[in-house]
Fold:
Amino acid sequence: MKVLLVATNRERSPYPVAPLGALCVAAAARAAGHEVTFLDLGTARMPRRALRKALTTDTFQAVAFGIRNLDNCWSFAPRLYFDEVRELTETVRQHFAGPLILGGTGFSVSPQGWMRRLMPDCGVIGEGERAFPEVLARLEAGRSLEGIEGVITGIRTDGLNVAPTRAIEPLAQLPAAAHELCRYQRYLRRGGFVGVQTKRGCPFKCAYCIYPQLEGRRYRLRPPEAVAEEVETVAVRSKLRHFFFVDSVFNDPRRHALAICRELARRRLPIQWSAFCNPTGFDAELARAMKEGGCNGVEFGLDVASDKMLTALNKPFGQEETRIALQAAHDAGLPMAIYLLFGGPGETWADVEDTQNFLNSCARANAVFATVGIRVYEGTSMADVAVREGQVEPEQDLFEPAYYLSPGLADDTEKKLDRIARRRAEWTSPADWRKTVVRLGQKVTVLLNVRPQWKNISSYGEHMRRSTP
Structure:
């Protein structure tokens, strides 16, 4: 079947993200014998015109949208991406009479919300490598789509949920992402990366996170040799050197991360890469292996660091693991950023200050990004707390962004957080991210190809923030 697969994500802050999920689905559909035309709107200047041109200059039997995100998850500047996708849907219906298929992580977060608002022919929930080719095959044969695992075909008004597709095992059976379909240079010129996935699934039970719902609650690992081979193929064929391992947590399981780093080091590839990590099992041996394998930056998603809030958000690590991890990265010469998410249940300004005091006692990060307000998603324990405390209605449609904020932080939130952030040069707060000088600084780092972009945040803090009241 001939299908137009459209990557719809156009978010460019802090940099545009290449459409890895859609490239994985494209590879699976092609391997199943379907003809895939890939349209990436991520860096398009006029997306509706680009889509219209694709629809009017070729003939397709189906159109599919890959929706990466539902919204930006920033409580201080919330942005829902629905309107952008709605406009693209209108363009499709003006110029194409065939079936429209929705999928991707952003769709899977709230499939009924998308179905109810856009009325596509069907949607694929969860991993699409099996379900999407089957949808195309049935459409081509004129057969019903009912009964395909993970596929929703209409608005469900009976209260039942369509579950995501079952986890694909082993991942080694899947073809590598169709990287050749992506014009990566457009992303790298704007600070982006080539995305690579080393595994799927997450066994952790963080109170607000939906990764386990989307990918399953246990790891499915790709062979380290296959990961390194994918990186090498892209690096050699396309002469690209900036990569990002997009796993929810790269360093767990530790043995798997070590094997990948050592395989990359063995191949001596001319690349640089970074990854999301947490302190679980992150020690000096792993940090050295990452450095030797080409890592040039670690992004620690701590979210919280006080004992009280580590427990409240059900984090899988504690302060001692955090201290060890930050010291290990520092000693290995790895630049590091820390991401903090304040506003969890019971949190107070004293807890925020405890977090800063604790981090002050650890190896210093290049950047600490502090934000506030926790996005509430269906099916998480955070949603239960939000309902119980009256911050979210029991039947509230969480397609529209809703955020939980501890009552203890509800007074003059942004100003107080910024005041605390100003005590440390490496800290930034939402008040900073609105400033013109920060946006200009980001553009300069992109033009100078500084990697990682946040490496010199402390310089900004020392020279730009201290004079501001």
The chain has a mean pLDDT of 94. The chain has 19 helices and 17 strands.
